[in-house]
C-alpha cells in the first residue's frame, strides 16, 4: 500500500520524477522542433525496417483486433500494448535511432511508440503529446545518467532499464494522471525493467526486442496506475529498489529534473545504422580517406582512440569472428575497417561473410581508450585515428559525432513513407507532424501510419 507523502522523511525519487513530469512546462521552438525530428526519425526507421525478420516477428505475434491500434507500416491493428511493442521493435530495427549519451539510452524508440499507441485510444492534443514526450525523455535520461556506469552497461542494456521508466512518465502525462498515480506508474515500471547485454558477443537478436518490452511495460504500468494499482513509492531508491538492486544506491549522484535545458536537447539522431559508439570513428575514417587520398590497400596499421565508455561497451572492441549482423554493427574495428575498404558508411558495409582484404584490415586495428576523450564524454563523443602508410602516417581527430540534421531525418522519413505508403500518404504524415503543436487530436497520425488505408488522405 502506498505510504502517504506526508509520512515520508522526503519525497521518493519516483514521486520527484512524477512531479517533474506533470509540472507545467513551456517549451520553446527548439524543443518543439526536436520532438518533431525525433518523431520523424522513429516513423522513418520503423517503415524502413518493416520487412526485416525481427520486425515481422514483432508484428506476427500481435493479435488482430478490429478497429484496434495501428502498427506502423502494417495492415494489422491490435491492442494498445501490442502496438507499442511492435512499433518500438520496428523503430529499433535498423539500429539507427536517437541516442542520449549520458544515459547510454535510445529513449525515442520507447517513449514515442508508447505515446503513439496511447494517443489512438486516449484523445490527446498535439501539445499534450509534446509535453509527454519531453517529460519521458527527461525522466529516463536523468535517471539513466545517474544509474549507469561503464561497468554496469557491460551487463545490462541501458534502454531496457531507462525505457520503461521514461515511457511510464510520458504515458502518465498523456493520460492526465495525478501525482500519486503517476508515482505508481513509475514505480510499477521500475519493476518491469530488464535487458541483458550478452547479445553483442554472440549476435543475438533479442536487442531488437528490448525497446518493445520497454514500451509495452511502460503502457501497462501507466494503465494499471490509472485504474488504481499502487506500486512501491521507493521502487527506485528504496533499500531493495532499482538503484540498490544494481548496486548504485550508495554512489548515485543527485538527480535534478529539468535543471537546465530539457534532456531531449542532448539527444542526437544517428546518421547511419550502426552502434552509437562506432559512429564517430567511422566518420573520422571516412574523413581521412577523403582528405588525404588514402587507399585501403596501402594501409599498414590502424590505431583508433575512443572514450572509455566506447571501448568498454559490449561488442565495441570485438575483432571477430563475425558470423552475425549485430556482431559487425557493434564493433568499432569492423565499422572502421569497412569504411576504409568501401569509402562509404552504409548498410552494405555490414554484409557477411567478409573477404580477404577486410580480414587484413581488421588484423591491423588497435583500439585504445583515451583519457582526454574519456574526460570529454558524454558531452562530446570524440575519436582519434592514425593510419600508417608505406611513406607516411595520417592522423585525424573528431571532437564529437556528426549527427544527422533535421533536414536529413525528414528526407529519409519522407523517402521511407513514400516507399511504404505512397507519396500522398507520406506528404500527409509530414504535414501532420509539422502542424503537431496545434493538433487537436493525435489519433489521425497513428491511422496515417497504418498500411490498411485507414488514414489515407
From TrEMBL:
| GO MF annotation list | lyase activity
Q: Which residues form the MmgE/PrpD C-terminal domain?
A: 273-385
| Domain MmgE/PrpD N-terminal: residue ranges | 25-249
Q: Which domain of life is it from?
A: Bacteria
Q: Which Gene3D superfamilies match?
A: 2-methylcitrate dehydratase PrpD
Pfam families linked to this entry: MmgE_PrpD_C, MmgE_PrpD_N
Similarity remark: Belongs to the PrpD family.
Its recorded name reads 2-methylcitrate dehydratase PrpD
Amino acid at each position: 500500500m502506498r505510504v502517504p507523502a506526508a509520512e515520508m522523511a522526503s519525497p521518493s525519487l519516483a514521486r520527484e520524477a512524477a512531479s517533474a513530469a506533470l509540472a507545467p512546462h513551456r517549451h520553446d521552438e527548439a524543443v518543439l522542433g526536436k520532438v518533431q525530428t525525433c518523431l520523424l526519425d522513429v516513423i522513418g526507421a520503423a517503415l524502413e525496417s518493416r520487412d526485416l525478420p525481427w520486425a515481422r516477428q514483432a508484428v506476427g505475434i500481435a493479435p488482430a483486433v478490429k478497429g484496434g491500434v495501428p502498427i506502423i507500416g502494417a495492415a494489422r491493428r491490435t491492442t494498445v500494448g501490442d502496438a507499442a511493442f511492435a512499433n518500438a521493435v520496428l523503430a529499433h530495427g535498423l539500429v539507427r535511432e536517437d541516442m542520449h549519451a549520458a544515459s547510454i539510452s535510445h529513449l525515442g524508440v520507447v517513449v514515442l511508440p508508447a505515446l503513439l499507441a496511447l494517443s489512438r485510444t486516449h484523445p490527446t492534443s498535439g501539445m499534450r503529446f509534446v509535453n509527454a514526450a519531453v517529460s519521458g525523455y527527461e525522466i529516463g535520461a536523468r535517471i539513466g545518467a545517474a544509474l549507469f556506469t561503464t561497468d554496469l552497461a557491460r551487463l545490462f542494456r541501458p534502454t531496457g532499464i531507462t525505457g520503461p521508466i521514461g515511457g511510464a512518465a510520458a504515458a502518465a502525462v498523456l493520460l492526465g494522471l495525478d501525482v500519486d498515480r503517476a508515482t505508481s506508474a513509475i514505480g510499477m515500471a521500475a519493476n518491469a525493467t530488464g535487458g541483458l547485454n550478452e547479445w553483442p558477443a554472440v549476435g543475438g537478436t533479442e536487442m531488437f526486442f528490448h525497446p518493445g518490452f520497454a514500451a509495452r511495460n511502460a503502457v501497462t504500468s501507466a494503465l494499471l496506475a490509472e485504474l488504481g494499482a499502487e506500486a512501491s513509492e521507493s521502487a527506485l531508491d528504496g533499500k531493495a529498489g532499482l538503484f540498490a538492486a544494481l548496486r548504485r544506491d550508495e554512489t548515485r549522484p543527485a538527480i535534478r529534473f529539468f535543471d537546465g535545458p530539457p534532456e531531449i536537447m542532448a539527444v542526437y539522431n544517428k546518421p547511419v545504422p550502426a552502434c552509437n559508439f562506432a559512429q564517430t570513428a567511422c566518420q573520422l575514417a571516412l574523413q581521412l580517406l577523403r582528405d588525404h587520398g588514402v587507399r585501403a590497400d596501402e594501409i599498414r596499421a590502424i590505431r583508433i582512440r575512443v572514450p572509455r565508455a566506447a571501448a568498454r561497451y559490449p561488442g565495441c572492441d570485438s575483432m571477430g569472428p563475425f558470423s552475425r549482423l549485430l556482431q559487425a554493427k557493434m564493433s568499432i574495428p569492423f565499422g572502421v575497417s569497412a569504411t576504409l575498404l568501401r569509402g562509404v558508411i552504409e548498410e552494405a558495409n555490414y554484409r557477411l561473410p567478409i573477404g580477404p582484404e577486410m580480414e587484413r584490415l581488421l588484423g591491423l586495428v588497435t583500439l585504445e581508450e583515451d583519457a582526454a576523450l574519456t574526460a570529454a564524454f558524454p558531452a562530446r563523443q570524440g575519436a582519434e585515428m592514425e593510419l600508417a602508410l608505406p611513406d607516411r602516417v595520417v592522423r585525424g581527430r573528431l571532437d564529437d559525432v556528426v549527427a544527422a540534421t533535421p533536414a536529413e531525418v525528414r528526407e529519409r522519413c519522407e523517402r521511407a513513407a513514400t516507399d511504404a505508403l505512397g507519396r500522398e500518404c507520406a506528404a500527409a504524415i509530414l504535414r501532420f507532424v509539422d502542424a503537431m503543436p496545434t493538433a487537436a487530436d493525435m489519433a489521425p497520425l497513428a491511422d496515417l501510419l497504418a498500411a490498411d488505408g485507414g488514414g489515407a488522405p
